[in-house]
């Protein structure tokens, strides 16, 4: 990351990462459930 990034961008980035992590978790659980 270069220079100073506005905190709102960092926050949005963190939320996005969190969402994709939860989505990945859900997909993994679905795979296990459906074999």
UniProtKB/TrEMBL annotation:
Q: Where is the composition biased (Basic and acidic residues)?
A: 26-35
Lineage: superkingdom = Eukaryota
Instruction: Enumerate the residue ranges of region (Disordered).
Output: 1-35
What name does the UniProt record give this protein?
Uncharacterized protein
